[in-house]
Specification:
The protein has 274 residues and is an alpha/beta fold. Helix content is 46%, strand content 16%. It contains 11 helices and 10 strands.
């Protein structure tokens, strides 16, 4: 039987998943969390999917061996191409999995008024068709417009300065969404909430943006409560961080994403290349 005192684990290709962790820390402050950023292999969005699936399996196994009660895939690309792998590995330990795609699709399908839903995501996520399938599963007749934005996540993770070239890049990605008249946009990468104000300005205030953080935090809460694994009390839980790349560079960017003190970050290595 799984102990409710165990932490919730989540992983991402880099620091984008910290936008999900931030929402979980706010919504479920009493829980403990373990976060792993695979910064050595960032970005996932342009890497070979089959090799990524092997690496995702290794990361999941590593987190489970530490002793966790839930695995959160805080990465849209990892969810899109490897959710089945994570679920298979977690099932061997009797642990449930919360992905980032399905919760967003559920919200987007519920709030769209004109039935035109946009998806802005990495190349691998778009090519996987994961969001299209998740939206089709909602039982509504939806027009799904998917746009790959390969340069956006690296720009955000690098902490590059916003300038007119940045705006032009974003306008180019948003152009098909504006032309299609979407009234709801899924931010299909956990990095994108950091540039939500820029996207909102380009698309207009009437377009609703659906981020992964709020949706996943709600799904985590439902999953823990259903399984009887939610921690009780008002005390703040602990959180710890691991990364596969240099600790110093992770820490510099991660604090901006988390918007809370980071504490110690430890480096881990995996033998499976991407």
């Amino acid at each position: 039987m799984i102990d409710a005192a165990l932490p919730v684990a989540m992983f991402d290709s880099g620091v984008g998943g910290l936008t999900v962790l931030h929402e979980c820390l706010v919504a479920l402050p009493q829980e403990d969390y373990v976060y792993l950023g695979d910064t050595a292999m960032f970005p996932y969005g342009s890497r070979d999917p089959e090799r990524l699936r092997e690496r995702i399996a290794a990361i999941t196994e590593s987190l489970l061996r530490r002793g966790v009660k839930l695995v959160v895939i805080a990465c849209n690309t990892a969810t899109a191409i490897g959710e089945d792998v994570v679920r298979a590995v977690a099932a061997e330990h009797g642990v449930e999995v919360v992905p980032v795609v399905a919760p967003q699709a559920e919200i987007a399908a519920a709030i769209t008024e004109n039935g035109r839903v946009g998806v802005l995501a990495t190349t691998n996520t778009v090519e996987s068709g994961a969001y299209r399938r998740a939206l089709e599963a909602q039982g509504r007749a939806l027009d799904v417009i998917e746009v790959a934005a390969p340069r956006l996540a690296p720009f955000i993770q690098d902490g590059s300065l916003f300038d007119e070239r940045t705006m032009e890049m974003a306008r180019g990605y948003c152009a098909p969404l504006r032309e299609a008249g979407v009234d709801t946009l899924i931010l299909g990468c956990t990095h994108y909430p950091l540039v939500a104000p820029m996207l909102q300005r380009i698309l207009g205030r009437n377009v609703r943006l659906v981020s992964g953080g709020h949706a996943v935090a709600a799904a985590v809460q439902r999953t823990l409560e259903r399984a009887g694994l939610a921690r009780e009390g008002d005390d703040e839980g602990a959180y710890e961080f691991f990364c596969t790349g240099p600790v110093s560079s992770f820490g510099e960017v991660a604090t901006r994403f988390l918007q809370m003190p980071l504490g110690e970050v430890r480096q881990v290595e995996f033998t499976v290349p991407a």
